[in-house]
Structures
1.
Amino acid sequence: MNLSIPFALLCVSLPCINSASFPVGVYKTGCHSRSFWIWVQKDFLGPTWQIEIFNDTSYPVVLDDDLSAQCGYTKSRDVYGNVEVRISFLGCWVNNLNDNQFDTAVQFRARRSNGDITYLLSKSCQLLDPWNMREIICEENYMEVSVIRIVPLDRNWLKTDPQQFWPLVQGGLSQRWQVQFTVNKTQIIMSAKDAFKKGYGMNATATRVVFRTRYQSLESMILTDGDYHYNAILSIMYYTQALIRLTVNTTLACPNDPPVMTQTSLSWLTPAVLSPLVLEPSLYTTTNLKLGLNGQLIDANLIAQNHYTFQNDGNTVDVTVPIGAPGGYTESDIVNNTYGSSYRIHLFLEQEWNEQPADITRHTMFKPIVTPFQPLPPIFINYTIPENYYFNVSLGNFFPDVDLKSFIIKKVPLTVIEAKNMGFNVIKVPNANNTNAFFLQVPFNDPLVVQQYINETTSRHYTLYVTYVMTLLEKDKDFTYTEVVVCILADVVLPTYNGSCGADRLILDMTHGNLDRYWIPYIRNLPLTRDLAQSEKYVINGQGPVFHFEVPLFAVGLVYEDITLRGIMARLDWSLRDNKTLEIKSKYSVFCRFPTDRLLVCFPNGTVKATVIGLDTKPNFNPQKTHLKDPTCTPKEADDTLALFSFSVYNCGTVRKFDGDFLLYENEVTFDREVLPENQPIISRDSNYRLTLRCKYPVRDIQQFHGKLKEIPIKRGFSAVYRSSQARALKKREHDELGAVLRLSKDDTFTNFYQSEDFPVAIQRAAGLYFEVDVPRKLPGFPPAMLQECWATITPQKDGFPQWDLIANGNLKRHCAVNIFKGQHSKFGIANTGVPKTNIYVHCQLALHEAVSCQNTKRPDQETEKRSVPPAGPYPISVGPITIVKDNGVQYLHVGEKTWSSWVWILSVGLAVFVVFTIAAVSVAARIFVC
Ligand SMILES: *[C@@H]1O[C@H](CO)[C@@H](O)[C@H](O)[C@H]1NC(C)=O
Ligand SMILES: *[C@@H]1O[C@H](CO)[C@@H](O)[C@H](O)[C@H]1NC(C)=O
Ligand SMILES: *[C@@H]1O[C@H](CO)[C@@H](O)[C@H](O)[C@H]1NC(C)=O
Ligand SMILES: *[C@@H]1O[C@H](CO)[C@@H](O)[C@H](O)[C@H]1NC(C)=O
Ligand SMILES: *[C@@H]1O[C@H](CO)[C@@H](O)[C@H](O)[C@H]1NC(C)=O
Ligand SMILES: *[C@@H]1O[C@H](CO)[C@@H](O)[C@H](O)[C@H]1NC(C)=O
């Protein structure tokens, strides 16, 4: 094929802008039996394009639909949508050499944004298959008949006589060619020129007369023969000369019944005998019947191979094609949000018959068929075998024009490449029917797989939320399919627990299962955080397969189930919770019983429990005989050594005080000494015992528990317990055989004194400190006491260091301002400037000035040898702590081991609404002397 020569010429005479050749591969040309065939890749020309042919003066003429039908050009698409142009060998502007060699040249004009581009094409074809007497073609857009003409004269007469040469007739120079139509049994005769104007195509070539028409012309008819319908034109062309009249029967008929469709196949049924074209049915003989596909005849082998049925029973020619069979094309689409497809196949049927042996007619019918859209909902199959530990699913079945674009798994978009890189297996598996399924394998342990443990079982749910994003390759349209696959597998190993009790702690050992590492540990309703563990001195060892956990007895987080004299029943509630829903996944409780020692517990609901211990004094007192301020409030339980009080802060004479943001509840345990005689109590051998119990609640939370008290029953159990170690320290320190007390006066009048429960006391630096030593007067025969030494320390211990001397050898130090000794009261005052800035404790030692000899008459159990005067001393007494504050701000002083900031912390985690505060005890042991 040589394109350059004709178009190089054209370019000289015509504006030749952007003229180009088709790139290799985007176009094809070929010669069919009666036509040229041109193919151009579908996207190449863009959405807007046209074909131009060159008229006799080489001007490009646009081929519109009418001109195409009139001149034998068919613009079509193949089943795949590529451009296909067929040009009849007998069409206009085809260079026809003796009806044997044909040349054509066309120009495609593509409209581009930056101007038109034209592509030139030319093609030459040689006739391979000789012309029959009559040839009828039922094209997509026209019907054409050509009939051999009997040549009475010289073979070339038409060519040598331009006057007689069609189409010059149409120029009106000759009226020798005429057309006669038969419509509704009426004849209509017109000149060839008029017929041409009406859109009919006519020509006389070297050997043939050609007549062509579009389907719905004015003179066309629909003929019916039995069940069949034809588009038909009954026409005759005449050539009339003085001596001769040439008549050519150009009757045309094309069956036009639509194919019969079923779900699975399509059937194209045509009459075996095309009756409008048959003159003598009795002489009718079929000589040839052939099926063609995509412009090419196909043989029986291919027909069988493609599973087509091609039958002629004498009445009907039946071509049946299974939908989706090879040779056609299935095109996917999305209609109404549903995936589906339609099937296209381009068939043609070539039929030859004769009535006289030589009168062979060849009738060719082109039949492009498109099935209606058929929805094909995608099929999702779950092939998962849970024991394999991966999801195996597939989505099908899609025709090859659909591909997998990406996935969305648990809302994460993943291209196929990304999915593969994540270790997912993605496979396209072809099915027998030319469709594909897309397999996806996702391991159970992938983070994109949702795992859900089912409470109290050993099963978990593995859930795959998958969306396939599919794309229609030809249409650039996407659609999605979403599925949720759940597999239940009993593969959970739960943690196992072992609880034990230490001397002062509860111990939990948890052997890990295979899920608990994803859960959050909780102590009761508190997440086990590093801070909590540190502040509460939990011991944690999380290494290895066993998680070891120790909680000290009085640490926050424990539950005290029961506090009786038998012991404290403490419970550690351990749980593991889901990290999102906080649902408890696993739990275990450790119970331990500890001895009830000294303790004071202030429960959030306002209940106070406290023990008193008879051993705290010498001689020991009987705890059973203790009571609270309200003497009817006696111990809930008591034995010889221990009593347990349990009372509400609203009862038993409990005193309530506001202290800033706190409410302070205070009560006192006292022991009633047995005195003799009862009405005039002078003598007792029992110890004097007082114990102050204090609970301090934040006001905010008090309101809460007041509210709660009304509405719901008091929750039993939880509180924190703090041992009052400072109380023990004070008790030991104050234990003094003389019964003397060192008191801190509120001012220098020595009329008001701070009570033991007032400590710590804050004193401004400027104020000075006034002390009084009080030796009970009611003990007659007591020798006068002398203040020997007084000193200050910053710890409760008398021997604490550093020390500041206040009185040495009975003499005031220089910085002490006052020293009043009056009877049995020794008073002294000191200026604060001389003492340290922080808390101080003041200690003194008393000495007795004279020993008195007495006789013990009352105590039979008391050994007489031991009756003697008390030793001269020293008798230590202490008071404190006292906080010396710089300015008017009163500083909080706390006696316990814990700093105030740690209390605040505990409160801020919302745990407790209480503060255990002070157990201050004063006990005075008395000896009985009878003089
Ligand atoms: C060819 O087309 C051009 C432009 O339409 C027209 O001027 C010319 O007459 C035509 N030539 C013939 C022979 O029809
Ligand atoms: C008629 O046929 C001749 C060839 O025989 C051809 O060159 C001419 O273009 C045709 N004219 C029409 C109008 O078909
Ligand atoms: C032929 O008859 C049909 C209906 O009988 C009518 O529609 C059609 O126009 C007629 N054709 C002509 C050319 O008169
Ligand atoms: C032309 O031929 C057809 C059959 O091919 C026939 O039916 C019709 O009568 C013929 N026309 C004339 C005018 O002979
Ligand atoms: C789309 O779906 C609606 C409702 O299901 C239906 O009425 C309509 O006919 C459908 N359209 C097509 C083109 O299938
Ligand atoms: C998928 O298959 C597995 C194994 O047969 C089965 O356990 C599971 O229930 C299935 N899931 C769905 C959603 O069908």
2.
Amino acid sequence: MKDGPDLPDLSSVPARAGAVLVVDLDAVRGNWRHMAGLADGAECGAVVKADAYGLGAAPVARALRAAGARTFFVATIEAGITLRKGLPDARIAVLHGIPPGSAPDISGAGLVPILNTPGDIEQWQAEARRQGRPLPCFIHLDTGMNRLGLTPAEVDELADDAARRLDGLEVQAWMSHLACADDPGNPMTARQARSFRASLARLPKAPASLANSAGIFHGAEYHFDLVRPGIALHGGNPAPWMSNPMAPVIRILARIHQVRHAPAGDTVGYDATHRIDRPAKVAALGMGYADGYPWRLAGKGHVRIGGHIAPIIGRVSMDLLTVDVTEVPDRFLAEGAWVEVVGPHRTVDQAAAEAGTISYEILTSLGDRYHRVYLGG
Ligand SMILES: *Cc1c(COP(=O)(O)O)cnc(C)c1O
């Protein structure tokens, strides 16, 4: 156990801040370079949907652009319009296609829609006719996930009459998405790649894109021309079958608001779920489930104080956590002191495992109450 707080420089954090989210943009850049290296020749894009997995699309995307990323993926048109303001010269692809009537907004912001349905294709062609110029797009082929993308029957129809059905469109990529890439033993991944290749062979030539973060670890036959890492850039473990090869990106720090000595026999928190069995020190920290700390981590989560791991006891409140700090020396327990809730020593993946969820959900649930500190970039 390390004795002493190894926290980042928090001198810029106002005294009134209750909890801090530190985002290490140098780590984001390093993670992108790592993935670009693995992709070995294929273009490495960057998925920054859901406000860059909760970490802030504008600063994260700026850092990724500076690292060399040229193609960005967002879920919604709204996110694309916002992202465009900070990325005047990048390609921004929108995963959710073209909700009816929204083609002019997509074109107006210079976004590239990912066409998922024959209706999307027709809308984008109509927009191209209206403007009298070819319009760029990606086209998504479903290879078994049954979520978004042209069905196999729709791919057949497209392949049979491609010149007419793609008239007016500049297809910049054929795309598909892997369902099980984070499970290395799952035969579905190879099956999807085979199906994707078979479709590509029947369609007009254009770059192809299949792999998300986990898919990139499956090797060169999954890389095609453009890879789409998301979680890996944001520090989550993209390859759960091995220890996390990515640099940690975030730290979450909460302040100690109060420390008390509680006698044996007392209880802690709502519903009195935790009973103290020996005299204990209990600290109340300034974050809760409203900051994305999972309510399910009651009695399961841990935080790190001055090198000591301290357990969450009792319920997680909306704005507070209670932890047992009996074993932590008093010099780390001043009112206002910082406690590491997530960081290099308590990772997002650990918190997710303890809560029975995935790192993606922990990150995208963080919310907007944190004082945010962006390092490097
Ligand atoms: C979210 C998403 C990605 C990125 O997935 P990660 O597992 O976060 O790397 C890639 N492609 C599509 C279509 C996605 O929806």
3.
Amino acid sequence: VCVILHLHFNDFKTNLGQEGHEWPTVTCPFLVSQQTITPIDDTRHLLVSGYMDQRVKGLDVRIISIFNKNTTHPMHCLFCCAGSLSTSTPASILPHPEDFGFAYVTTDVMCHIPQDCNATHVTVLTEPFTQNPTKPSNHTWLPLRNRNKHLSDQEKLKFNFTVCISSLFGDYDNVLQFVQTLEMYRLLGVDRVVIYKTSCSRNFDRALQIYSQEGFLEVVPWPIDKYLNPSPGWLFSRSGGDVHYFGQMTTLNECIYRNMERSRYVLLNDMDEIIMPYQHNNLMSLMDALQTQHPETGVFLIENQIFSKTIFEPSRRFHLPQWEGVPGVNILEHIHKEKPNGKVSYLYKIIIQPRMVEQTSVHRVIKAFSSKVLVPLDVCGIIHVRDSFRGPDYKNFQMDKRLWDFQELLIPRVDEVLKKVGLLNETGRAEE
Ligand SMILES: *[C@@H]1O[C@H](CO)[C@@H](O)[C@H](O)[C@H]1NC(C)=O
Ligand SMILES: *[C@@H]1O[C@H](CO)[C@@H](O)[C@H](O)[C@H]1NC(C)=O
Ligand SMILES: *[C@@H]1O[C@H](CO)[C@@H](O)[C@H](O)[C@H]1NC(C)=O
Ligand SMILES: *[C@@H]1O[C@H](CO)[C@@H](O)[C@H](O)[C@H]1NC(C)=O
């Protein structure tokens, strides 16, 4: 069940005066949502999480939500102010502009907090709230996060780089590529990876557990399939379903706000993508250089490069025996990337300063408080090992051995993780 009882109903103080018509002193929060998805009562809308966000004048709170486009009645925010209920305030409903034809769209519910309210929790209602002594409030509350404005950056910024991975679903089993990719992130200076998980294979789940236990990975449960019929595709007319790609837009935006206080930079890329600096050894020196050139910029677009997973590097020197039984792609074996064909690519992934961004899509930022910069491919590009749409002819591809610069550090780290996952072929290792 999705709620915990913080107090019992007996704990409500019905503080009726002599005349019997004073409002009761209602305590809150009574029921706090323990889920990442919380339906709004009497609607088809879903709330995800509430954040303090005072970057837009006159508004204090942004609630990342998923709204049904068809139902657009006015909504209201109610706050729990350090133990007592506020009056409600009208909500601004801001649907994100890209819905790709789906009925459900990522939506920001934005509200003003009433004066003198030290808000700790928020909920969204279809009617303005009036206290009623005969009907104690039992709303489901969302905790209000990012309430640490008073702390210094030094106290808040726990991470320099956080990678947000927006959706893990189906029977995803690409363990080898995942472990190689996470270890590459670590070598490049990533401090934290956040993954929104609907489902995956058992082996994969084991790898997630290993990384979560050591604190490098934060797995956010994402049971979107309990509430909607999520689409495995990005376009309604092609794949059907209620919501774009398992709610990817929502989780990407949620991840930005989740990391706004605590991470200097956020990388928005998929699980099979590595944002790779070509002139620097790690992301911090890359970003130091980029920010020196572009001091006011908080949005950096990184171009995609597709490395064919069906073309193997001929010497097979990284076809290692200990990885023989591990499901998934060995990225060290795929060094042929598609040659640019003169057309401009729009398939960017993004490095952002989360505090500069208001709304994002997958390949571009929708609303930001800063300009954006397109980073040249010789400075930084995405290593994305996957199926190529080009024919298998070598002339369509060029070699890129950048990953091999890290192999000496990478391989033992991958082995160590696979051993913990229970997938390393120990005989293979010994024979080597
Ligand atoms: C939304 O409303 C339109 C027009 O009333 C209707 O045709 C459509 O089926 C509705 N879609 C959903 C998902 O309810
Ligand atoms: C707001 O409430 C929190 C406890 O929920 C408390 O720690 C904080 O000091 C309060 N802030 C103000 C300004 O009263
Ligand atoms: C809370 O309110 C709903 C109706 O809004 C009601 O169905 C439910 O029983 C109430 N829960 C409790 C614990 O009283
Ligand atoms: C972030 O980078 C700075 C500068 O390189 C470094 O001093 C600091 O320790 C890093 N913080 C974390 C959490 O890694």
